[in-house]
Q: What sequence folds into this?
C-alpha cells in the first residue's frame, strides 16, 4: 500500500510539472536542471488503455522531454492494452509519428501486440515490434523508467 501511495504521489508531481511546461510557449527556466544527472536515458512504458493517460501524461511528457532536452535518449514502450488503443486511434497515431520525427525511439511488446492482433498495424506506423526482454537490459543499464 505504501508503494502505491508513493507512486501515486510521484505521478501527481510529474503531472503537475508536465502541465506547467505545457501551459508555457517557451522553455521553462529550470528545465535544464530537471531530471538531469549521471544517466540521461529515459524509458516511458505506456501500458494504459486510457486515451487521456496517453495524451495528457505519457505522450505529453515524452514529447516535452525531447523538446526541452530533459533527457538525452528517450524510448517509449507500447505495452499491453495501449497497443490495441494505438491501433484504433488516429490522433494517437499522429502523436507517435511526431515522436518518431523528433528522434524518440518507439517500441512495442511483440507478445502484447500479437495477443491483440495488431503487430503489423504498429509496424506500419514505424514502431519497432519486438520481445520486450529488453526491459531487463534497460533496468540493468540504470535507465530511468516511467510507467503510465
A:
Amino acid at each position: 500500500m505504501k508503494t502505491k501511495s508513493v507512486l501515486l504521489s510521484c505521478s501527481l508531481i510529474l503531472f503537475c510539472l508536465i502541465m506547467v511546461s505545457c501551459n508555457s510557449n517557451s522553455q521553462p527556466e529550470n528545465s535544464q536542471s530537471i531530471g538531469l544527472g549521471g544517466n540521461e536515458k529515459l524509458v516511458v512504458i505506456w501500458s494504459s488503455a486510457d486515451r487521456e493517460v496517453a495524451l495528457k501524461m505519457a505522450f505529453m511528457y515524452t514529447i516535452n522531454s525531447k523538446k526541452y532536452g530533459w533527457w538525452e535518449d528517450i524510448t517509449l514502450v507500447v505495452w499491453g492494452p495501449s497497443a490495441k488503443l494505438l491501433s484504433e486511434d488516429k490522433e494517437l497515431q499522429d502523436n507517435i509519428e511526431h515522436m518518431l520525427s523528433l528522434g524518440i525511439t518507439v517500441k512495442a511488446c511483440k507478445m502484447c501486440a500479437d495477443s491483440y492482433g495488431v503487430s503489423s498495424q504498429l509496424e506500419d506506423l514505424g514502431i519497432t515490434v519486438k520481445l520486450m526482454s529488453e526491459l531487463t537490459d534497460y533496468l540493468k543499464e540504470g535507465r530511468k523508467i516511467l510507467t503510465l
Summary: The beta strands are 41-46, 73-78, 105-109, 128-130, 144-147. The CA atoms of residues 100 and 106 lie 7 Å apart. The chain has a mean pLDDT of 84.
